[in-house]
Amino acid sequence: MKNLKYKPLFTVMILLFGLIFPCVAGSETLKEELGKGEPEEMVIKSNKLEMDDNRKVVIFTGDVDAKREDFVINCKKLVVFYKSLPGSKEPGKEKTEVDKIVATGQVKISHAKGGAATSEKAVYYQREEKVVLTENPVVKKGNDFVEGDRITMYLKENRSVVESSADRKVKAIIFPKPRKK
């Protein structure tokens, strides 16, 4: 019973540390190429934090603001799903990793290098390093933008797929760039 009182705190610390890795540059290879050996700090603020170790979930609700040096996520609710790693069965020392992160309610993701994505729901899948935006997703950079029913961004591959339903087509507005002289 003594081990259980420290386990939730330990798990939250592991999860918050794990949030640093997955968000835009999750692969070790990409980090090495960018010359970043140490993870960047991520600060998450919300009105409420709830952790359920049985369900392996951490829930941030109410005016959620997650910031890292290269991006900011604002939403009404952010749910972090994590899983136990195999081979870590020692009580109180269980290793975990983030499985996926679900942001809902007026989701806005702003990138430091410009560009923003908005939707009502965004799901980040760590293993695949992809983000899926649904419920009125729009991605903008400068005056250019694209919208559809579902926008999937493959972060490792630096590519995106925009899908639409049968009754609504994908819409993209792209302005010509000024020519360099």
Note down, in words, how this protein is organized.
The longest helix is centred in the N-terminal third of the chain and has 19 residues, at 2-20. Residues 1-39 have low confidence and may be disordered. Strand 10 and strand 11 form a beta hairpin. The chain has helices spanning 2-20, 28-34, and strands at residues 43-45, 48-52, 57-68, 71-84, 96-111, 116-125, 130-134, 138-141, 144-147, 150-154, 159-163, 171-173. 14% of the residues lie in helices and 48% in strands. With 181 residues, it is mainly beta. The chain has one domain (2-173): Lipopolysaccharide (LPS) transport protein A like domain (lipopolysaccharide transport protein A fold, Sandwich).
Brief overview:
The chain is mostly beta strands. It has one domain (2-173): Lipopolysaccharide (LPS) transport protein A like domain (lipopolysaccharide transport protein A fold). It is built from 2 helices and 12 strands, in the order ααββββββββββββ.
Percent strand equals: over 45%
Secondary-structure-derived class: mainly beta
Number of helices: 2
Rg of Cα set: 18 Å
Strand element count: 12
The name of the CATH superfamily reads Lipopolysaccharide (LPS) transport protein A like domain
Major beta-sheet overview? 12 strands, antiparallel
- Overall tally of domains: 1
Tell me, rounded to a whole number, the average pLDDT: 76
Taken in chain order, the helices and strands follow as HHEEEEEEEEEEEE
End-to-end Cα distance, whole Å, is 72 Å
Q: Which residues form runs of ≥5 with pLDDT under 50?
A: 1-39
**The first-level CATH class name:** Mainly Beta
What CATH calls the topology is: lipopolysaccharide transport protein A fold
Q: How much helix, percentage-wise, in residues?
A: 10-25%
Q: At CATH's second level, what is the architecture? A: Sandwich
Shape: elongated
